[in-house]
Structure formats: structure tokens, C-alpha cells
Amino acid sequence: MRRDQITNHQRIVIKVGSSSLMHPETGQPDFARIELLVRELANLQNWGKEVILVSSGAIMVGRQALGLESRPDTIAMKQACASIGQSRLMMLYQKLFSEYNQICSQILMTKHTIVRQTSRRNAKNTFEQLLKMRVIPIVNENDTISTHEIEFGDNDSLSAVVAALINADLLIILSDIDGLYTDDPRKNPEAKFISHVEVIDETIMALGKGTSSDVGTGGMSTKINAASLASSFGCDTIIANASDFRIIHRLIAGEEEGTFFKNHPSKGMTLEQFLGDLSD
């Protein structure tokens, strides 16, 4: 598939991490960047695309509201921060989207949402109805009630599950790196950028690196795993840099930015299998 064909994709899932929504110097929300993100998504909707946002940030916003200097390290404190932050984050999104005459909604998920057939079907039906009404669903893990047994663990995985669940055409994972490299470019200046991945094999999987962020939870490894799941369900994936959210419309226009992962549908892949692998 050529990049210029991406513009034909209709149903698009966009994942944004906590570190992309904050000022790195202070850990406070970056309102200018969040407003630009909202404008880009509203414009995609006006373009006629179906848009789903998977947004981290609830724990970050709750942590900021409580004046905590570092990320909470207990489940109870994480859940408390998420409980405070999720409502504040949605209030911010709703205010900004309303300025562009766009309605958004909130969907909170856990593994049980997908593993259980009835709740998975209900979730899919909810997504379909919202998209039919031209609403932009904003998805996050339900951190307030999640425990190790029922959590996705990172929103890279969640975004891929959402893309698979709703049969999305394209998954865009925005991060603090330009895409996939042969090595960590922050440590190895000789690392080469990879703009196109035809097949996600063991060599590609081995390129995954950890994260050094104090805010996010997923590194390159989780992003490659997410691309692999999306690929198995017929969804293309792009991993790109979130430093300028205007990259979203450039990617949809087919410009050569980020790393593009071509889809390869697999009849044998199931969401239950993927979620089981996350627990191993």
C-alpha cells in the first residue's frame, strides 16, 4: 500500500499519551497543545472521517490537581488520581470540542469489556451508534477500578483493541519519538529511521525499546505490539511524533512522516488471545 492511499481511510483511531498533553518542565497540562489536538480531530470529522480518540492523562491531571510531584506508585493512589483527573480531563475536552461545534463522549474500558462476549458486543454497538451520530468517542482505561487482572496496562494496547473491535482502517499512535528506528536514537546517533514496515516479524519486534518517561507507561515495544494486533485485524498503523499535532492531517493526506505498518489480516487472531498474551 502507498502512503497516498491513506487519505481514503474512513475510520481512524488516534492514540495520544500523557507526555504529549503536558509541559515537560512542570508536568502541568499544556492547554495550547490540547486545543490544537481538538481542532485537528474536529477538522477530521468535518472532512467526513470517523474519529476515535484514545487519550491518556487522567492520572496526570489528578496528580496535578493534588499537587503530587511524582507519579503515584500504589494502586489506591493511582485510582484516586484517575477518579479526580478523568472528570477534569473530560470537562476540558468537552469545553474545547464545543468551541468547534463538535460533540464528544466518554468511554471507559477494562479487559472485561472485551473478554466478555456480551459487554464486547455492547461496547461495539455503542461505538457504532456514536460514530453514526458524528460524535467523537474519547476512550481511556477505567483506571479508577482497574487492577492487574483486568487492566490493559497501557493505552497503546487499548488503542489497538479499540481499532480491532470497531474494524478501524487506520490507527495513529502519537508519541515522543518520530517512529521506529534500528536503535534508540537518543542513545545511538547512528540509529536509522524506518519509514515503512511491510511485515512485523521477529526482527521488527526486537527493535522495541523501553520508556524513560515519568508520565507515560508504554515504550516502543508496546507500540509495535499494538501495530501487530491492529495489522491482524486489517488495520494499518502509523507511529509518529506528537510534538506538533498538525501532523495528524499531514498523515491522513499521505505525507511521509512517522513509521507506517501495513496491515496483514489474520483469521486466527482473536482479541481474547491478545489480552491473554498481555497477562503472560
Question: How are the elements arranged and paired?
Answer:
Blueprint: E1 11-16, H1 31-47, E2 50-55, H2 58-66, H3 75-98, E3 104-109, H4 111-115, H5 117-132, E4 136-141, H6 155-165, E5 170-175, E6 180-181, E7 193-194, E8 196-197, H7 202-205, H8 220-232, E9 236-241, H9 247-252, E10 259-261, H10 271-279
Parallel strand pairs: 1-2, 1-5, 2-4, 3-4, 5-9, 8-10
Antiparallel strand pairs: 6-7, 9-10
Helix pairs in contact: 2-3, 6-8
Function: Catalyzes the transfer of a phosphate group to glutamate to form L-glutamate 5-phosphate.
GO molecular function: ATP binding; glutamate 5-kinase activity
Catalytic activity: L-glutamate + ATP = L-glutamyl 5-phosphate + ADP
Report on the structure:
Keywords: Amino-acid biosynthesis, ATP-binding, Cytoplasm, Kinase, Nucleotide-binding, Proline biosynthesis, Transferase. It is a single chain. With 280 residues, the chain is an alpha/beta fold. The protein has a single domain, classed as 3-Layer(aba) Sandwich (Carbamate kinase), CATH 3.40.1160. The strands form two sheets. The chain has an eight-stranded mixed beta sheet, sandwiched between helices. Helix 6 packs parallel to helix 8. The protein is globular, with a radius of gyration of 17 Å. The protein starts with 10 loop residues before the first strand and ends with a helix.
